[in-house]
Design a protein that fits this description.
Length: 105
């Protein structure tokens, strides 16, 4: 093969490779599993990361609450009395009705 033929093949090869890449890119953006699907996946990932972060914070609050209950018998007693509606001897409980909400003038 002579130099002119190699040069011609090299040019056409580069042109065909570039054209192939453009076609592949166009197809990737148009097919259902293309760019829009990728965007949907990224949005779902962000949503799951937010949920994960919220759950981690909730877990931390619950761990702190468990620690408080383990370390304080007074807190344990208060929690039990509150949940069961119990009073100590001599204590009085006042139950107030919920007031009607006022309408602003």
């Amino acid at each position: 093969m002579n130099v002119g033929m190699k040069s011609l093949l090299f040019r056409w090869g580069g042109f065909l490779a570039a054209a192939g890449l453009l076609v592949a890119l166009a197809l990737a953006l148009r097919v259902p599993q293309g760019f829009s699907a990728l965007q949907g996946k990224h949005q779902r990932i962000r949503q799951l990361q937010k949920e994960n972060s919220d759950l981690l914070k909730e877990n931390q609050r619950k761990r702190e609450r468990i620690r408080q209950l383990r370390e304080s018998s007074a807190e344990q007693e208060r929690q039990i009395r509150e949940r069961l509606g119990l009073l100590r001897e001599g204590e009085t409980s006042f139950v107030l009705p919920e007031g009607e909400k006022r309408k602003e003038p």
